[in-house]
Amino acid sequence: MNKQSKPILTIKLARGRLLAGVATGVLLVGGFFLTGQQGEPDAKPTLAVVSAMAGASPSGSLEQRVQLLEKLYNADPIDARNDPVWKGVPELNGLKVDVEATIKQAQKAMDGRIPLVAKQIPPNVTLNDLGAVPIYRGNPEKKQMALMINVAWGTEYIEDLLKTLDEFQVKATFFLDGSWTADHPGVAKQIVVRGHEIGNHAYSHPDMSHLDAGSQRSQITRTNEVIKKATGQTPTLFAPPSGAYNETTVKTAHGQKLRTILWTLDTVDWKKPPASVIEDRVLSRAENGALVLMHPTEPTRDALRTILQGLQKKGYGLVTVSTLLDPVRPLPTP
Questions:
Q1: GO CC annotations (predicted)?
Q2: Residues 6 or more apart from 116 whose CB is under 8 A from it?
Q3: Neighbour-count burial for 158-181, b at 16+ CB within 10 Å, e otherwise
């Protein structure tokens, strides 16, 4: 099992005050960042500094405050599963707060902060254990969503999409058609330079379910090769054009070390409805773990700002597809 990222978050607690408690809802989490590698189940607990505002409550002991944090953040791991509707649903790590170690760290702190010591607990079953399965969503316990932008034609709206994503500090996953990438290697490179993830969208936008195994393999292999040449990156995710696939497609992609990715929520933006329709389709159906399908169209360009504002206001973390599928458990933010 590969090691994963250590959680680092900041919770500021005044030494002389007790958090008002879970029921009052006054805990305000400052943020959550991932660095380094996450430990195995028997690894040492990882250190996190938790930042929160203390409510107007009577003072309590350091131990009581740490025990409150333990109740807030402890969670059991969730196994990956092959769902009858959603197919491969990714696993999610559990979280275990080390109360004794946290108290010791807090006693050493000089600025009133409580450095929360915790570790991620891997589940027993992972996506890798499920084998070749399509994926339609992330784990529903993760308050994150991923924008997947399938690109097979045109370039005129991509720069505007990139500017809006930059403005909101959001990273998306662009699934690139191989022939498009061959024609526009500079644009493909610019997507990577801006920090976005690149996926494979086959070479000539075929209905993969109508191709034999050899032809399907060629579509995927040629696309990976041209994307690697243009961007320096080799995709690990495959989005079949139009969502058309069969068992051979998934197995072929899996054999080339790519996960087959579909979607939870479709904007149907290729029909070019008004931007307001696209906005409503996303914001009214937003949910934990959703994969949102988009294309570089004019109405999507016009709708993107409102979509990002709305999703962030609802508290969703907007991440790449790979991050959404990653088992690291993000801590809740207000």
A1: membrane
A2: 9, 11, 47, 48, 49, 50, 66, 69, 73, 97, 102
A3: bebbbebbeeeebbbbbbbbbbbb
Beta partners for 175?
A: 150, 199
Return the CA Rg of the chain. Answer: 22
Alpha carbons 220 and 240: distance in angstroms, whole number: 9
The answer to whether 264 and 291 are in contact (CB under 8 A) is yes
* Residue range 123-140: mean pLDDT, rounded: 98
- Look at the block and give the residue holding tokens 């999703």: 311
Tally DSSP H helices, then E strands, for the chain: 11, 15
Residues 6+ apart with CB under 8 A from 2: 37
pLDDT at 331: 65
What is the dotted CATH code of the domain comprising 144-325? Answer: 3.20.20.370
Domain residue limits, the chain:
4-125, 144-325
Higher pLDDT, 145 or 97: 145
Q: Are strands 4-9 and 32-38 parallel, antiparallel or unpaired?
A: antiparallel
What is the pTM assigned to this prediction? Answer: 0.81
- Provide the sign of the torsion angle of the four alpha carbons 155, 276, 149, 334, taken in this order: positive
